[in-house]
Amino acid sequence: MSEPVIELRGLQHRYDTDLVLRDVDLKIARGEIFGFLGHNGAGKTTAMNILTTLLTPTGGTATICGYDVVTDRRHVTRQIGYLPADVRMYGHLTAAENLEFLAKLSGVTDARTAARETLDYLGCADLAKRRVGTFSTGMRQRIGIAQAIVHRPQVLFLDEPTSGLDPMGVRQLRETVQQLNRDLGMTVFMNTHQLSEVSKVCTTIGVLNHGELIYNDSIEATLRRFPDEASLEDIYVRVGELAP
Amino acid sequence: MITTIASQQSQLLRRQHVTLVGLATMLAVTAMAGILGWSSHHTIVRVFDEAVRLQAAAGQPAPANPFLLKPNLSLLSNMVVYIPLIGSLLALVVGHLALVEDQGQATGRLLFTRQVTRSQYVLGKILACTRFLAVTMAACALVSVAALVVVNRALSASDVGRLAGFYVLSWAYLTVFALVGMLTALLARRRSLALLSAMGVWLVITFVVPQFTSGLRPTQSLNPLTEPVGTSQAFFRATQRAQPLSIVEQYKTVSGTILGTAPNPTTGDTLLAIVPIVSAAILLTLLVLWKVQHHDYARSVTDE
Question: What domain count does chain A have?
Fold first, then answer.
């Protein structure tokens, strides 16, 4: 594996007495599209909150591009883009105004140009002058991705990006993720329940079960390891059964 | 980063029509204060003149009209009531709106995964709120000048200076309430509860605390008696000593001195009265800064 872009070492997080992440060790190489799978409450969002500097872990370390998410927050935030589940922005502002503002907060000097170029790149220049408050879920998701990449980060975090999208929206999102990975070389870390999407877009997967990483390998190796299983869904169930 | 946050917040206030509604309300209130001040002054002077005319008709001497000696700015004395009642509510809403959206809409998650620090964020929001209040007070000052010029024909430099002082004081006073709105937005888990809590604090500061300090003095209504009769009793002594805790009372004291409506103002008392207002603003700023550092922006505030 080339030098990891994301590295977790013994990562732990505890909410009061509830241990939601248990000594998670994980390395993700540059250029990967990583699918982070797990049941509801497995700890996926907690892990993403830690990696995006929103939450301080109670144990272990996590680095992005070699920078510690706790001690080098400023460097980490320069490298990452984040699309939360159910993304919302300032409804009274237009898409371009939202993007321009968020680009400025990411330290982009010519924020207006960056916002316009990003909207053009994602094919949603038509949304630039419309207020975000009037957008449908699909439109919000597209602008959500735009805000996540407006400062051209190296790592893109997507939390349940397909939730609430219609089939066309899901396909569009998949193509966008692949395009970003291919054109801009972004490493993508994606929390998801949609196993069908994972098999189509991800290059590696990790499975989290009650806060513990029980599986981590490339899609190709996974399919080789479980040749008898018909789909990734079957593999996911099988991995869960094998967990201690 | 601070100015970026402040500019965006100002833009949001404009788009939410808070700037327009707030400014229009305060300008209307200022104009009303001027009209009411002029109306009551005019009525009193006419009644006095009528009394003088009757006395002259009866062959009796009449004293000079004492109401003509009232300071020019006393026409705006109603503003001392309107700002703590209406202005502070407006400031509360502005402060509340500044922080609550980033929790309710979960936009805070988008902000804090970027270069901006939480301190820069909250200082930007405070800057936006104080800027809005400063613009509002400046506009009110202009309306006040216009009203006073119409009524009195001319204003001295001293009057203009006092008027500026009064609106700077009002700005500082309103800033306290904007910070209360921010703090309650950070403390409450529900959006609706945040505004209700802020209004609860406003009620306590504006109505309850004054009742437990100067409001308890049984002879207060007998102005211009400054020393209440009942101060020999321990209870009244204690409540009188607690008066600095009532920033409304302090605001009224200083405003009365500036506008020339206070009975016997001294510079020392006036300066001392400013201290609680400034202290409250500093303390609340520190509390908001501290709270935002520990706020969980990974979780959103709901309307449920």
Answer: 1
